[in-house]
User: Fold SAM-dependent MTase RsmB/NOP-type domain-containing protein from Lactuca virosa.
Amino acid sequence: MLTREHRSTKAGKIEDLVFSNDTGFCRRNGSRRKEKWQTAFNFHQGNSKSMEAISNLPLPDAFLEFLNENGIDRSIYTASDSTPRYIRLKPGCEEQLEAIESDIKSSGAAVSALNISHGDHVLDLCAAPGAKLCMVLELLGNSGSVTGVDVAKHRLAACRTLVQKYKLGDHCRLFVADGASFSLIPIRVHSDFKSVNREFGVKKDEFLYKEWTSRRPWKERKRANKEIKNGFLELIQDPELIYYGRCSGVVGMSKIELFQTVSSHEISQYGYDKVLVDAECTHDGSIKHIQKFENWGWSTMERRVLDAERTDDLTILQFRLLTNGFKLLRVGGNLVYSTCSLTHAQNEDVVERFLSLNPCAELLVIDGSESWPCKSGRIPKTLRFDPLTSRTSGLFVAKFTKLAKDNRC
Assistant:
């Protein structure tokens, strides 16, 4: 969720500061400089009332038992000297941001670990609510593309609002789809197939995507109503495209071209350069999330976090998301898997199982992580953040690359 503050500068201009309560990312509107979206990385400037509330949080016995079973230090949830969710960057203090970033890293580490380069085609497989998606778009600038996927349409709609509001969506497309089965690759490959599609029956009057608008054109609505009346209503497209920017490659394409499937060989060549799998989890490492259960009711926590069946279902989903994200990665590309859980079951265990079944996958050392206030996970090259070590909420990060097929694969 984003909050906003307006301030007057010495020059008399109004400076619009936007803060993310969920991620620690700060965007400074009214500036065309590269630091529009900067990673504030939860800079600590002293205790706050919200942090004091954490230290007084009455954790239920069932949750304490959950922590013991998973080998998690319960003092993580009672530390009063913790980190706020965002910083406020005063006008004229931009030069301090680099020092802050070099000192303290947090949830932005998952995006930083991707090492986004100019022109990359990036897949965000669990895109909602959209702060990391916006960070990737800002890093790419006017190059490459970002494909955001999420199974929850209302949450992905929040992403759409975000990228439009801050004018970051020109190179973005958003699909409502199951990230564990999503199969579309970057549009760069489709141009090679356009002539083939035309040859195989794409009609001249075939629907072509025009520049995106929130309201469907009258002719399109009339066609849909006619199909309903004649009983030819098509099933909802899966995946469902709910937004595309004018430079995302969608404009001018037909549905057949956009939703065509390609072979695994083509994916290895033309798949995504970078993939982010910030997987659904129990959120037990998110201090703010755990804090909310005091208002929601601890029985809700038992259902959402502590229920063994739900946890088992989540680890299966996490493995499927990681597997599918890796499938859509080109050879030589990078994938980052992250969760805000502190349990081994949702992190190292998922990674170990994935590596055992995918010989073309290799863990990488995360560049620059030696300066981050984090510790190594149970598996070498993986990283863990927590309130005691990092003075941030919990985060697990693992980075993979895809090797070319050889005797190992």
